[in-house]
Backbone:
């Protein structure tokens, strides 16, 4: 969904650390909304607006492979940047 809406997505790894079988990563993404954004309520046409957001990811590894991923995405910020929801 995100790669369709923002095909040229830049991601920057801000922090990463590991303990035991888990790796935690905090990254920032940014790009321009140039493709359709598919939402449950319907597609949002490209706006040409720039967006920036963050995400925290935790991966659990077993035998060198990710066996469980957890994501904590910031979706509020880009939705506000695209005027899909009002800013306070």
Residues:
């Amino acid at each position: 969904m995100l790669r369709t809406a923002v095909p040229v997505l830049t991601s920057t790894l801000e922090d990463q650390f590991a303990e035991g079988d888990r790796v935690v990563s905090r990254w920032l993404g940014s790009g321009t909304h140039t493709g359709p954004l598919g939402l449950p309520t319907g597609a949002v046409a490209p706006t040409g607006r720039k967006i920036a957001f963050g995400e925290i990811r935790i991966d659990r590894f077993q035998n060198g492979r990710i066996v469980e991923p957890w994501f904590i995405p910031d979706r509020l910020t880009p939705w506000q940047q695209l005027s899909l929801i009002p800013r306070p």
Summary: DSSP finds two helices and six strands in the chain.
